[in-house]
Amino acid sequence: MRMLWELFITFAKVGVMTFGGGYAMLPILQREVVEGKGWASDEELTDYFAIGQCTPGIIAVNTATFIGQKQAGFWGGIMATLGVVFPSIVIITLLAGVIDAFSHLMWVQHAFGGIRVCVCVLIFNAVVKLWKSAVKDKWAFGIFAVVLVCSLLLDLSPVVYVLFAAVAGIVIKVLGGKKA
Amino acid sequence: MSVYLQLFLEFFRTGLFAVGGGMATLPFLYDMAERTGWFTAAQLADMIAVSESTPGPIGVNMATYVGYTSAGVPGAVLASLGLVTPSLIVIMIVAAFLKAFRESKYVSAAFYGLRPASTAMVASAGVTVVLATFVTGEIAAVADLVTAIDWRYVVLAAVLLVLTRWCKATKKLHPIVFIALSAVVGVVLKF
After folding, report:
1. Complex-level ipTM
2. Do B28 and A89 touch (CB under 8 A)?
3. How far apart are CA B5 and CA A79, in angstroms?
């Protein structure tokens, strides 16, 4: 019982201190989970993080679930996960209410006009980062190009592309006999 | 179907198929906006900005915000829970078969295909955001391109690109700095 509560609190702390998610979370996990609680070694944490990246879903959530599960089984995984999302739910809900209340003000609209430009640049930067780790040869570029063109021109669900890409990856790497 | 159940299921789907972290949920959120009409593309851009500038993983923040906008506080809770439920299921299974999972050539091959696809989908969602942001007028002919685009936005974007990518002194700064700067520019220049 005490362990479950500790998992919840620790990951709520990690949630509060993470801005942006993904790699921003790693140093905080290191401090809280490795140095603070001794729940994992540095190598183990890197492993968990790698698994968080290559499973579906949010990396931060996946890593939390994994560490919680390792520490205290099924319920440990659930408590760690609830811990990591709890601060987001509280903070965003409060903030969304405030933003809704002020959104009719002219200067707030101007501010968001500027912010939207910034969001475009941030998304562009995110794409460049993803590109570097994803598109490493001509086959990967082919998948990128096909999905980009199709998702710009067609109105298909993203699920279709995810399934296509997983199958394409297996066909190219396993059946095509290229070294994975 | 009640909006709550629908929110949970929509985000369950997002959590199950979005590969590569927070921004990878973006294409799913655009798809959701189009199909359900719960929120608009412009609102989504604001939600991204708020999610980037507040504590918490960006993917969870966006889910909470979309859920709140669509159905209030219960919506916020259900959207977040929907997003993390697939993680719980998948990770529990993977943890049980950790060695087999890590050494499976099928898993690594599938992800070899998934990563570029995820990149392409985020890029495509980015194009949608860019068009919604920069094109403020009507485009009926090619000649309208020059007048339909708000060039002040383009200048700000160019400055931000330099600051976040090439300027050594500023490129390591947290995104919240650039978001705050853009908000100030927006207010001063009446964007």
Report:
1. 0.82
2. no
3. 22
Greatest Cα-to-Cα distance within chain A, rounded to the nearest angstrom: 61
φ/ψ (deg, to 5) at B149: -90, 135
The CA distance from B135 to B132, in Å, is 6
Instruction: Report the candidate in A103, A108, A178 with the shortest Cα–Cα distance to residue A140.
Output: A178
Neighbours of B72 (CB within 10 A): 15
Q: Which tens digits make up the pLDDT trace of A126-174? A: 888 888 888 989 999 999 999 999 989 988 888 889 899 999 999 998 8
Report yes or no: B189 at the A interface, CB cutoff 8 Å: yes
Query: A-chain residues within 8 Å CB-CB of B54?
Result: 19, 88, 91-92, 95
Annotate B38-63 with DSSP letters as a single string: SS-HHHHHHHHHHHHHSSEEHHHHHH
Torsion, Cα of A103, A104, A108, A109 (10° steps): 100
Burial A60-94 (b: 16+ CB within 10 A, else e): bbbbbbbbbbbbbeeebbbbbbbbbbbbbbbbbbe
Contact (Cβ atoms closer than 8 angstroms) between residue A111 and residue B1: no
Q: What three-state secondary structure class fits A136?
A: coil
Question: Token pair for residue A22?
Answer: 């993904």
* Closest chain A residue to B79, measured at CA: A89
Domain assignments of chain A as residue spans, ordered by start:
2-102, 108-175
